Amino acid sequence: MYIIYNNLVDDNLAKKANEILYKTPELTIYRLDVSVNNKEMIINGVVPFEFYKELAYKNLENID
Predict the structure, then answer these.
(1) Is the CB of residue 57 less than 8 Å from the CB of residue 63?
(2) Would you list the domain boundaries of the chain?
(3) Cα(12)–Cα(33) distance, rounded to whole angstroms?
(4) pLDDT at 3 over 90
(5) Alpha-carbon distance 29 to 9, whole Å?
(6) What pTM did the predictor assign?
(7) How many angstroms from the chain centroid is the CA of residue 44?
(8) What pLDDT, in 10s, does the model give residues 6-55?
(9) What DSSP string runs through 15-45?
(10) In sequence order, which residues have a C-beta less than 8 Å from that of residue 60 and are 6 or more positions away?
(11) For residue 47, what are the CA distances in angstroms to 10, 15, 16, 29, 56?
C-alpha cells in the first residue's frame, strides 16, 4: 500500500510541477520536464542562461 501511495504522491507532484513550468511564459519555449522520485524533483531540459534555471527552481520551490 505504501508504494502505491508514494507513486500517487510523486505523480501528483510531477503533474503540478510540469503545469507550473508550462504556465510560466519565460520557460514554456524550453520544454522543461519534471520527474519526481520519493518527493525529490528533477528538472530535465536545457535553458540558455542561468536566469531561467533559477526561475524554474524558484517557481517550484514551494510546491506541495
Answers:
(1) no
(2) 2-60
(3) 14
(4) no
(5) 27
(6) 0.85
(7) 9
(8) 999 999 999 999 999 999 999 999 999 999 999 899 999 999 999 999 99
(9) HHHHHHHHH-HHHHTTT-EEEEETTEEEEES
(10) 17, 20, 21, 34, 41, 43
(11) 24, 20, 20, 9, 10
